[in-house]
Amino acid sequence: MDAAVCFYCGARRPGLWGFGPLAARLVGRLDFARAVTIVCVAAYVASILLDPRAAAQFRSPFDLLSPGFGALVTLGMTGEAAWRAGWWWTLLTAIYLHGSLLHLVFNLLWVRQLAPAVEQLFGTARLVVIFTAGGVAGFVLSNIASGTWTIGASGAVFGLLGAMVAYGRSRGGTFGMAVFRQYGQWAVLMFIFGFFMAGVNNWGHAGGFVGGYLAALAVGHGEHRSERGLDRVAALATVGMTVVAFTLALWNGFLR
Question: Could you list the pLDDT tens digit for every one of the 256 residues in the chain?
């Protein structure tokens, strides 16, 4: 029985050992795009404050207000060297770090464009999982294929595109194919665009798209089944792991 309240006695279905309603309240209050924006902006400001001299150096309009390398490593930039050091948490923290003001604004504009569409089709909890899976998968492939230091939410953004493409293909029909074509074209254009820009992590984009696509198939969308308590617990666990990741990054950078 999936109803939250019994039709006969009015008792609520607790689920998940009583944590289901709590998870529903916490996830239900989440404005995902705003939360990502706040975390990314806070992390960017922190990276600037850690090394203001590096941020003040003007190299080009594309590198305006770029944080210093050491500041980004301290806050959780990822790469092959981070893996060798055992810094697994950088797969999560690097999603929210950015290398310039333009980098930050560009990614946040795409998050605010794509997140509401994914949320409408998958629900807030599954959106959290898909976004994070895309970001982590992008960095995993990037660290394996190129090994260079990398940051940014673009892998997670491609994960959202992958989720929309997965939805369109899964749903089928006129509407499904329209979604498939629209978001598929966006992904192709953005991927091609990346080859004409210096410093773009195309491995991260490819891995993010695949990660988001597979995550969307794994969690399913709203037309197949409604969001369940388990989805909300998975979202809270994902958020919790991200908090732990930033805690470890700060401990490693300042207190170790």
Answer: 445 555 444 445 555 444 445 445 544 556 899 999 999 999 999 999 999 988 888 777 677 889 999 999 999 999 999 999 999 999 999 999 999 999 999 999 999 999 999 999 999 999 999 999 999 999 999 999 998 999 999 999 999 999 999 999 999 899 999 999 999 999 999 999 998 887 899 999 999 999 999 999 999 887 777 788 899 999 999 999 999 999 999 999 887 6
CA dist list (Å): 59 to 7, 65, 107, 178, 243: 66, 9, 21, 42, 33
Q: Which two tokens stand for residue 44?
A: 């960017």
Judge whether 221 counts as a catalytic residue: no
Residue with tokens 């997670």: 156
The length of the chain, given as a count of residues: 256
CA distance 209 to 186: 12
Give the burial class of 217: count Cβ atoms within 10 A of its Cβ; 0-12 exposed, 13-18 middle, 19 or more buried.
middle
Distances (CA, A) of 240 to 128, 129, 191, 233, 237: 12, 12, 31, 10, 5
What pTM does this model have? Answer: 0.86
Please confirm, yes or no, whether 154 is among the known catalytic residues. Answer: yes
Q: And the tokens for 76? A: 């959780």
**Which is catalytic among the residues 47, 103, 142, 205?**
205
Catalytic residue among 103, 142, 154, 221: 154
Q: Which domains does the chain have, with CATH numbers?
A: 31-255 (1.20.1540.10)
